[in-house]
Specification:
Radius of gyration of chain B: 25 Å
Strand content of chain A: under 5%
Number of domains of chain B: 1
Strand content of chain B: under 5%
Order of helices and strands of chain B: HHH
Largest sheet of chain B: none
Shape of chain A: globular
Helix content of chain B: over 70%
Largest interface: A-B, 23 and 26 residues
Distance between the termini of chain A: 55 Å
Number of strands of chain B: 0
Oligomer: heterodimer
Structural class of chain A: mainly alpha
Helix content of chain A: 55-70%
Chain lengths: ~240, ~90
């Protein structure tokens, strides 16, 4: 095992090199763990909903818990109009959650600790929310940049600020998830390294920290998935219910 | 199914729980913690986006370094507005 705490974030190729039109499309360890997360979700939900009992078993109960959690989140933050987008937010939440959680397993790879992954997710949300906004409201959606009750003199300034604020959404969304995951995993690795280098006598303190941090990281993994999903709901709310 | 009545009362309790607001409370601390994580990046992202826009516009119009300075401050204002909005949302809930 490498002692370099950043070594865990290395992306390397698994299997043959695939190169299509100058773009490297090889299967990497990152793709492998994305696939594992996605397959885990599919298998879990398939098994959980195979036997639909009135009194649910443990597996079905867990699935229903997730369903209720997301359904409640959507109706609380974005209202009933956002109901059609439930599948999107549910899969988004489950994917981020599973990627974070799979990353907590030893010897695994944390997909969400790479900014390109989170940025693509965030950009996808940003573009689709903007698209939904224009689809529902047409050019009236541009009113989101022009808050009401502002003096005419200040209007150009405020509009520019609003546009910057709007454009900062995908950045803050992706950076938050990426930074939290990467910082947490680096910290875990650093403390793990301390245990080895301090040996049997001094290694107990960092080991205690390591255990505590693992608990914290699991909390962060859940929380970041939650924040990711709830912010998507909030952005969707802004797009669906224009109230400026 | 020996305790059918028992199940019915349990169902009633579960249903009333679903409708009342008391089920919200368990989520609340998690929500607040989630929003606390949010505030920092909210500010930084707006400043970064503002600066990048300024940089690109500077290259376009050949006005180095004026637009990057202006947009840095505009980005800071946008960041403060983002934080205030997030805090307002937090207070509402």
């Amino acid at each position: 095992m490498a002692t370099n705490p950043m070594h865990q974030f290395n992306v390397y190729r698994i299997g043959p090199e695939v190169n299509i039109a100058g773009v490297d499309l090889s299967f990497t360890n990152s793709s492998l763990f994305m696939l594992i997360s996605a397959l885990t979700i599919c298998i879990f939900l398939f098994l959980a909903t195979k036997e639909k009992k009135l009194i649910p078993g443990k597996l079905q109960l867990t699935a229903e818990l997730f369903y209720n959690f997301i359904a409640k989140m959507i109706s609380d933050t974005a209202g009933s109009k956002a109901k059609p987008y439930f599948p999107f937010i549910f899969s988004l939440f489950m994917f981020v959650l599973l990627c974070n959680m799979v990353g907590m397993l030893p010897y695994s790879f944390t997909v969400t600790s790479h900014i390109i992954v989170t940025l693509i997710l965030a950009l996808f949300i940003f573009i689709s929310v903007t698209f939904i906004g224009f689809l529902k409201h047409g050019f009236k959606y541009l009113k989101i940049f022009v808050p009401s009750g502002v003096p005419v003199l200040l209007l150009p300034l405020i509009t520019v600020i609003e546009i910057i604020s709007y454009l900062s959404r995908p950045v803050s969304l992706s950076v938050r998830l990426f930074a939290n995951m990467m910082a947490g995993h680096t910290m875990l690795k650093v403390f793990g390294g301390f245990v080895i280098s301090l040996g049997l006598i001094g290694g107990w303190l960092p080991l205690t920290f390591s255990v505590a941090l693992t608990g914290l990281e699991i909390l962060v993994a859940f929380l970041q998935a939650y924040v990711f999903a709830i912010l998507t709901c909030i952005y969707l709310n802004d797009a669906l219910n224009l109230h400026h | 199914m020996q305790n059918k009545g028992n199940f019915k009362t349990r169902l009633k309790i579960a249903k009333s729980k679903l409708n009342s607001d008391s089920s919200n409370k368990s989520n609340k601390s998690g929500t607040l913690l989630g929003f606390a994580f949010k505030l920092g990046t909210e500010f930084v992202a707006a400043v970064a986006v503002g600066t990048i826009i300024g940089f690109i516009l500077d290259n376009w119009f050949d006005t180095k370094p004026w637009l990057i300075i202006i947009f840095f401050f505009l980005g800071s204002v946008a960041g403060i507005m983002n934080v205030i909005r997030a805090a307002n949302r937090m207070q509402k809930e």
